Amino acid sequence: MKIIFTDIYNLGDALDQPKPANQVIPEWYKKINSYISGKKIPTDTGEANSTIKKCMPVFDAITAGYIITSAADLYVEKKEEGLYYKWSGLDLISFHSPDQTTGHPAKINDELNSSPKFINPWSIKTPKGYSVLIIQPMHRESPFTIMPGIVDTDTYTNPVNFPFTMNDKNWEGLIPAGTPIAQIIPFKRENWKMQIGYEKEIQETIAIRNKFKTIFWDRYKRFYWNKKEYK
User: Fold this and answer.
1) Which residues of 16-155 form beta strands (DSSP E)?
2) I need a labelling partner for 34 at 20 to 30 A (CA). Which of 50, 190, 197, 206 fits?
3) Per residue in 166-186, pLDDT tens?
4) Is residue 98 part of a domain?
């Protein structure tokens, strides 16, 4: 499968290209040890001493899909009447009317500039039957959070902007160009029907738990995990 990102404003070298998320690993994740105290030793109770770095669900979340970064520096200033945004040259921010998002639990409106959104210069194209999930880059420190959304990018290829809220309405400072602002995860659209599991599913879960008891480390990775590739 192929996903196509196109810079519709033709900004060229002035713009960071989207990258596979596995090429934009957060620094905190790179730095932490894989094992508590840096030593691969079981605990006194017979448990693995792995840290979050060995958790494959976290790894899969961090490396899923593609990362779009901010096109230019953004400075956030706290004024008496609300937050004020300054950016350098490139069109980076626009605003919704506050009436469009009133009542949203993220409370993305501020008193001065209504509902801010990052202008996204990238159109996204996916194969027929595939959409993209757009979310805040996962497991990364950030002073802001974008609103998640799903877009059917096999038919709609116009760039989708990213409404966001500042996590702290008193935060001030620089959000530099190149900051990850959105994680783009393609997926195949399928119809699903929910049901509740019973004895068969209970026995399957018990079998998994028993298999887990046979080794100390990397149980999920060794027995059940499947590698995901985004290039």
Assistant:
1) 19-20, 66-69, 74-79, 82-87, 93-96, 115-118, 122-125, 130-135, 144-146, 149-151
2) 206
3) 998 889 999 999 999 999 999
4) yes
